[in-house]
Amino acid sequence: MRRSLAPSQLCKSQKPSDTNEINDDDDEYENHSPQMYISPYRKPLQLLNRKKKDEKGFPKKLNRPKKPQRPQNQSHSEHESFIKSILSKPFKIPIVNYKGSCLSRGLGVRRQLLRQPLHDPFEEDALVLYHPPELSPHEVMKMDKSKIPVHVVVDPRLSKVLRPHQREGVKFLFDCVTGVRVKEQHGCIMADEMGLGKTLQCITLMWTLLKQGPDMTPIIEKAVVVSPSSLVKNWEKEVNKWLGGQVQTLAIDSGSKQEIDRNLDQFMSQHGRRVGLPILLISYETFRLHAKVLHKGKIGLVICDEGHRLKNCENQTYSALAKVNCKRRVLLSGTPIQNDLLEYFSLVHFVNEGLLGTANEFKKKFEFPILRGRDSSACDDHKKLGETKLKELVDLVNLCIIRRTSDILSKYLPVKTELIICCPLTTLQFELYNSFANKQEFICDSIQPTKKRKKNSEGVTSGGLTAITQLKKLCNHPALIYEKCLQQESGCEDMRKIFPSNFNPKLVQPELSGKMKLVDYLLAVTRTSTSDKFVLVSNYTQTLDLCEQLCRSRRYMFVRLDGSMTIKKRAKVVEKFNNPSSPEFVFMLSSKAGGCGLNLIGANRLVMFDPDWNPANDEQAMARVWRDGQKKPCFIYRLLGTGTIEEKIFQRQAHKKALSSCVVDQEEDVARHFSRDQLRDLFSPLRQDGTQSDTHDSLRCTRCVNRIQVRPPPPDADCNSDLTNWKHCYQSKDISDLVLRQIWKQTGATFAFTQVSHEEQRITV
Ligand SMILES: [Zn+2]
């Protein structure tokens, strides 16, 4: 209990008993700064109980570290009194027995008549799904106040993470399920391509419907997401990620029949304010098996993930789902709906029954005339009618289908420039390379006549595989094979003498490797002329060891992620690196350690030090920086030793990308795919007057004459285009990346393919 310091109350507060109250306020002492309470317009009223306080031992509190600053020139006890006067400031209403107006609202009391949306519709970036009609004051007066509709506004926590196309998608979904787009119909199909965030859009829709409505009550009580069993956990994870802790889900992907029935029963029997588990996540199979329970009551919203399973309206899953007592239905599909009329019919019929009529009506009204019109022997009238009917069908169906392709994603990302750079070997590398390659060719040839020797199906022996690795390592840096040369290992005999006599493998010498030299330059120029950071990727931990040494000698801060790191530690390291103010300049990554899902947007330049057999690995590594959240233009440097085995691996990779069906994961498998001729080609020695780029040579390019690109690539080409349609660069002036352009001459690079992801066009919606 506290007393007022108003003059009328002061006499009371001077009573000795009040000192007890002061003690009660001790705890607040630490947390309150007196300044918070001092009005600039009035002086402290009076100093109280100075003496008593001293006796109470207050002074020692002054030694507390967090003591508030007191006004200068005040003695200690004055200060204490001052604090006390502040702390004893009451919350009491000054007029005794004053009750206040009965209309005014007490704190924490909900105002009965106040009708307002759950979230502020006028806030910046607010995503408003429903706007109440504008009413004139007269209309408002006439209206029943309890029925004035309010805005429906997406929870700002979600709307702030939604991208423009997702905002558009959520609005589309909402309009469909609330019957705004098609009268009397409440379903839709979202057929966005992978990666556009269908899940997040659906979660936003669910959350909004579960929490809000124009009449201030939630539009739905319960939602069910049906998905393939492998995705149930994923949905659970996503819901937790976006709505963490705010909503409970019931995820059913296993369990005994009775247990599942019991859980589903419980789910279905929830109503009104007591819906503790408003979201059910269930697989198609489980749904079908337990459909009886799920048909018992009403469900607010059903979402069918991978919904193209429902393209056949005669299967059991379809009928089990179709019978659900739920008018709001959303079907998700990542694959475009085939140009099959019946497939169209069953999917649209599932979400919006009656929109296309019954199956028979559909056949009569659309299918028959359209098919007849397409017939090659159709007369003009039939053709015309067929076209009209098709257009009518498409227009009708488009009201409830939304499909966007992943192309739109790149529009929201900064421009990515990919550069494939051919770096010639240094003299040392060159001599070692040919010495090694010559012996390998000999091995291959010698194998051939004696077929009895154990070898893999198409010619590569395990020795051949080792040889490939050795050559690749040599292309990275001669130091990586020095040990083998010292040991005189197979293929490396007599190679020690090629190394300079004072060669020290412990000392990092970037100038001995064409690629390492280029990286050294790249890092130095970037470091001094920009605030950009690098990701450095290699297949070999040994190469990363060298890069580590390089960074040390240049005093660059770096981090290295290796397989042994715990997930938690990884996350920490990554988070720190991505912070623009952290001093780490280089992030080293082994392409094998994957880094699947690793987000390294703190860097916008990435070096792929060596090519991997599997294009998917390289693609994955490159996607670490050019992804969601990246704000700077990105540069991907892929380095290849000019004319070497690396270029050949790269060409094979490009070839394999074209035949994406035969992507191979294991290096062993890849090697097995080489014929003897290809193998010989792989190990062919380099020529002194060698090529600028073996890869470019293999294209038989018609746009380049005498080492000059005379015709530019087609304007619509991008990083996914064939290399023939990339820019072919021979000199520094051809290079658009200013960092590489500056160092082109010094590095001795012979050729580069460059391409950009898209023209810069930032769209803000
Ligand atoms: Zn060319």
From TrEMBL:
Cellular component terms per the entry's GO annotation: nucleus
InterPro entries hit by this protein: Helicase_ATP-bd, Helicase_C-like, P-loop_NTPase, Rad54_N, SNF2-like_sf, SNF2/RAD54-like_C, SNF2_N, SNF2_RAD54_helicase_repair
Domain called Helicase C-terminal: residue spans: 517-671
Keywords from the named record: ATP-binding, DNA damage, DNA repair, DNA-binding, Helicase, Hydrolase, Nucleotide-binding, Nucleus, Phosphoprotein
Compartments in which it is found: Nucleus
One of the GO BP terms on file: reciprocal meiotic recombination
SUPFAM superfamilies in the cross-refs: P-loop containing nucleoside triphosphate hydrolases (SSF52540)
GO molecular function: ATP binding; DNA binding; DNA translocase activity; helicase activity; hydrolase activity, acting on acid anhydrides
Family matches, as Gene3D superfamilies: P-loop containing nucleotide triphosphate hydrolases, SWI2/SNF2 ATPases, N-terminal domain, Tandem AAA-ATPase domain
Signal peptide stretch: none
Compositional bias (Polar residues): 1-17
Superkingdom: Eukaryota
Residue ranges of the region described as Disordered: 1-81
Protein name listed in UniProt: DNA repair and recombination protein RAD54-like
Species in which this protein is naturally found: Ciona intestinalis
Name of the gene: LOC100178294
